[in-house]
Model the fold of this input.
Amino acid sequence: MQTNVDEISTGIYRLSTCIPEIAPGGFTFNQFLVDADEPLLYHTGMRALFPLVRGAIEKVMPVERLRWIAFSHIEADECGAANEFLEVAPQAQVMHGALGCMLSLNDQLSREPRPLADGEVIDLGGRRVVEVATPHVPHNWESHMLFEQETGTLFCGDLLSQTGDGPAVTSDSIRDAAIATEQLFMQTSMGPAVPATYRRIADLEPHRLAIMHGSSYDGDCAPLLREMADVYEQQFGCSGALAGATV
Ligand SMILES: [Fe+2]
Ligand SMILES: [Fe+2]
Done:
């Protein structure tokens, strides 16, 4: 097993490990490294991947430089190695939506996390990321995303997952592959928050989607996200109005 490193946008690196057994053609686990004055690692990978992911980071920068660690939600592939990275990067701190800090991370992390309010901007020094709360989408109450403003890169976690070991980034349509992968795993918590969230993140007009499993996408992102909102409504039954909470 190896971890490939590709610069998918200026100063944004995709660290990708394909595990063959999980799906036909394999299934990739991707972390993203944002090179800034205060470098950010988005997703840590599972603890078992820690040596590989650490080695991949070291191809770009010393791991001790990491200042921020973030991940979309609390599962092993997103954040299993968070404490391992906090150990080797003494200045690093996890940033996460305040809800996730309160629910889990204040307890689970070896160092206190930095809670984020929805819409809050964090200046990484040369890069700025915006907190986008996405509760229950694609799954887990504490889910959130980060949007990097300079390159228009949306770190969208498990959304639009694809099986196989495709190119690091593609502008070819990933719609059908994403639907097929959803049908295979049924990973999304199907409910009215799903289409509403896809439409909300489309309104950010991202230039690039940094996807956790599969190729990143730099085609027409907003139309794809709106089309997927329709797919989740019509094909997967995520219809109905959201009562009470806003997303
Ligand atoms: Fe997940
Ligand atoms: Fe994942």
In short: The chain is about 25% helix and 25% strand. The pocket of fe (ii) ion (ligand 2) is lined by residues 77-78, 158, 212-213 (CB under 6 Å).
